[in-house]
Write a structure and sequence with these properties.
319 residues; alpha/beta; D-Maltodextrin-Binding Protein, domain 2; five-stranded mixed beta sheet; 12 helices; 11 strands
Amino acid sequence: MIKLSRGGRERSAAVLAGISLALAPAALPVVMPTLQPLPAAQAQQNSKPVLRISAIPDQKPEKLNRLYGLVANELSKQLGVRVQYVPVTNYAAAVSAFRTGNIDLVWFGGLTGVQARLQKPGSKVIAQRDIDASFHTIFIANTSSGLKPVSSLQGLSQLKGKRFTFGSESSTSGRLMPQYFLGQAGVKPNQFAGGAPGFSGSHDATIALVQSGAYQAGAVNEQVWRSNLSEGKANPAKVMAIWKTPGYPDYHWIAQPDLDQRFGKGFTTRIQKAILSWRSSNPEQKQILSLFGAQKFIAANASEYSRIEQVGRQIGKIR
């Protein structure tokens, strides 16, 4: 066996290393993947306009998300277009987003609907629920408040000096019409405890606040009141109805004036026909109607809301 000196061993290692490098495969160049164009059908779909729907936030967000998610799916299926639900933070935001064209089809209350149409000439009233032609507000009271159910408008005078809350400041059933009827009964806003009423922000919140005793009384929309009772959220031992108003027109769908130009001739009419066609015999549509608290939708027109506009001007919500 031949022994190599230290220097020889180092030279041999260097030679072997050189051979290894020579035999190693050459480094391959990095090849960036080529982006493939979208399939024609997908690209075409993405280029189509999206129908953006929204609604005034009159109830808890989780219920609204569920309801209008179902509405978006149903309209998309019936109309053959992409439909997206766009939630808004408050009533005024819904009116503002409609004015700027950021939402296309909106479920407004009576007052916000009038405000939106006045700010966006040419917008169209599409439909209302069967219960909206003659809607009602329920005045409620905490059972420990000393307030009693009344049979006439003048009985609302017992609310003077009480802690009272409306819903949203722009709610038809939670502020506009109850303030109108209170005025008819001789009760002014500055005659409540503290010199002013509260504003809870939504019907659900009004019920919860009156039930807790934070307020002695309040005004809520009849449909939400009945829903809270049936679901056990309103406890009759703690909160009760004391008076129901006469009927007035309320909620309705309103569409932007340019939908036919964006989606094709007759599109606004197609939306109306789709909504009016919803029936409880269809499982998906039954869910929608149930969450709306209605049996069906019916045709509506702007002239039906002239009284709402008149009252809105009287209390300074429309100028």
